[in-house]
Amino acid sequence: MAGHADSTGMLGRIIFAWWKGSKLDCNAKQWRLFADILNDVAMFLEIMAPIYPVCFTMTICISNLAKCIVSVAGGATRAALTMHQARRNNMADVSAKDGSQETLVNLAGLLVSLLMLPLVSDCPSFSLGCFFLLTALHIYANYRAVRALVIETLNEGRLWLVLKHFLQRGEVLDPTSANQMEPLWTGFWPTLSLSLGVPLHRLVSSVFELQHLVEGHQEPYLLHWDQSQNQVQVVLSQVAGPETVLRAATHGLILGALQEDGPLPRELEKLRNQIRAGPNKQSWLIVQETHQVLDQLFPKFLKGLQDVGWKTEKHQLEVDEWRATWLLSSEKKVL
To answer: Which family does it belong to (predicted)?
Structure first.
């Protein structure tokens, strides 16, 4: 039984790290809360396993799998949040004090459990009631702790909140307001599917298609928009830095906004009306026109981000490692 549980846990740990590893940095708050809740679920399964002997092996395997996922998600997000809290580049100091604090809390928990053990050992229903009460308190405390975090770098969710507010009201949300509005349970993402840093062969299969795609692109990224699936794929140049990635993500999210309701600037409202008038305007023409809109809009948006305290020299957007090299359009040949 122990071998089955260990094998299940190790396999789950490997698959989860491979599947969700890059998302743990991008959405550290959400995955931190997920790890805390899943850890409580794993403990509940361990408590319930002896009550149902028929399902004992399966229950223990699931519990061990959950704990291994918690180990990956919890450890990775702790490192990300420790880096965020090390405001003086004192990550080792913050990590050491965090470890000491956890040790102190565990010691206090051990002492309290020794005091409570004589009271609950003879009453299983009371023990279960205490577990549910303390678990609810634990989840609430962790939720409040995660909600209190103010991260000044932009991930896709925070960028979407800030951009939508900017398009609708012409104002840029400050980090505190955006972090308070950021969803922690559901709705991590906008309806648009945005993929940054995809390989070039995913967008084109011939030189002719590449020339067609490059036309009108004066920035070091190539963007393809699938209107029917509301999916944006972005190829990044070798020279694309954080500001380029931020512009590409903003570009993609603006295309997604064209398929939603809500007020937009005049130029984008005109494009949205053209899309809704049908028959569908070709996506590559819309992408070219939004490039022109962004030339005016993005510098104002970027300055607004910097003015209210966002750190735009780095980001927490999920970006794949693929990069490509190509000649820009005839209007701008030099990168």
So the answer is: Belongs to the RUS1 family.
